[in-house]
């Protein structure tokens, strides 16, 4: 039996996932978490075989949670679930140690297949993402500007492009306004841009935000 922990801040999403997995004879949902901190707190107690993790949650984000999980339990498979298209986060989370990436609009049977595959030590990605990963390994010269950002810089870039102020980003990430301003300055420098408007236009053009 594959013991699953679901981490998602939306109760309706968690309930829907449980209903899907209830039809699988070899999968059991043993725990739920509604924040990253809640997940990290419950992890030692429940000892799941696989974690279903939403990439966007309040407080500590899914990417940071993933890194902490991998530092605590490197062999524990973490399957990322997201409402965002693959091009926004998939390659980044896979490089951070995720065992797979699945969008929430995927067919229910894909979720079951993905859980079984990552639990057996495999990786679960779509064929289109596999092609992008192969291309990504080809040469840094083909990378887009945002792919040279650190994970935190990328997170801040996306939040700026969503129209959030420096203060709002600082509050969400539990960091100081000065720290966020420093990240913003680094982003502008690395991407050779002058202001938030240019960053937002770039993010929209590259499908980083809806």
TrEMBL record:
Keyword Chloroplast listed: no
One GO-annotated biological process of the protein: regulation of DNA-templated transcription
Domain (HTH luxR-type): residue spans on this chain: 142-207
Keywords, ordered alphabetically: DNA-binding, Phosphoprotein, Transcription, Transcription regulation
UniProt cross-references to Pfam families, sorted A to Z: GerE, Response_reg
Domain of life: Bacteria
Signal peptide from the UniProt entry: none
Gene3D superfamilies: 3.40.50.2300
PROSITE patterns: HTH_LUXR_1, HTH_LUXR_2, RESPONSE_REGULATORY
Modification 4-aspartylphosphate occurs at: 54
Protein name (Swiss-Prot/TrEMBL): Two component transcriptional regulator, LuxR family
């Amino acid at each position: 039996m594959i013991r699953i922990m679901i981490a998602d801040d939306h109760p309706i999403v968690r309930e829907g996932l449980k209903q899907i997995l209830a039809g699988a004879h070899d999968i059991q949902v043993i725990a739920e978490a509604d924040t990253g901190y809640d997940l990290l707190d419950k992890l030692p107690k429940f000892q799941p075989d696989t974690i279903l993790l939403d990439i966007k949650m309040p407080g500590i984000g899914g990417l940071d949670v993933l890194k902490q999980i991998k530092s605590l339990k490197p062999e524990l498979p973490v399957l990322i679930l997201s409402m965002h298209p693959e091009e926004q986060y998939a390659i980044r989370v896979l490089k951070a140690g995720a065992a797979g990436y699945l969008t929430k609009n995927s067919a229910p049977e894909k979720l079951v297949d993905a859980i079984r595959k990552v639990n057996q030590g495999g990786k679960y990605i779509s064929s289109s993402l596999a092609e992008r990963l192969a291309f990504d390994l080809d040469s840094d010269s083909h990378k887009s500007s945002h792919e040279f950002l650190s994970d935190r810089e990328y997170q801040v870039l996306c939040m700026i492009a969503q129209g959030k102020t420096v203060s709002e980003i600082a509050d969400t990430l539990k960091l100081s306004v000065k720290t966020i301003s420093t990240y913003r300055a680094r982003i502008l420098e690395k991407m050779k841009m002058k202001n938030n408007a240019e960053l937002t236009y770039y993010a929209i053009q590259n499908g980083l935000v809806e």
